[in-house]
Amino acid sequence: IKKGMAEISEPDYQHALRELLEKKDRQLQESDPWARKAKLVRYALSKGFESQLTWPAVHQLVDSGAEGNS
């Protein structure tokens, strides 16, 4: 596992996480930002992403999207 993780660059890892979150976010019907964030984090964690990278990505996605959805 460590060898596999060493082969993935940080930008590629974050890009994959962002794409995964954006795709899932489009599928969600949830309007409450906190519930939406929780669902996105649970989804990313279930796919094996690390929580310390997932939370900031989710906050950025939902908070930036909230301005456009109002």
Folded structure, characterized:
Helix 3 packs antiparallel against helix 4. The chain has four helices and no strands. It has helices spanning 2-7, 10-27, 33-46, 51-69. With 70 residues, the chain is an all-alpha fold. It is elongated and about 40 Å long. 81% of the residues lie in helices and 0% in strands. The protein starts with a helix and ends with a helix.
Radius of gyration from the alpha-carbon trace, in angstroms: 13 Å
> How widely separated are the two ends?
42 Å
Unreliable stretches covering 5 or more consecutive residues: none
What is the number of strand segments?
0
Q: Determine the structural class based on helices, strands and strand pairing.
A: mainly alpha
Helix content, binned percent: over 70%
Strand fraction: under 5%
Mean pLDDT rating: 87
Treating each run of at least 4 consecutive H or I residues as one helix, how many helices? 4
The helix/strand series, from N terminus to C terminus, equals: HHHH
Largest sheet at a glance? none
Principal-axes geometry comes out as: elongated
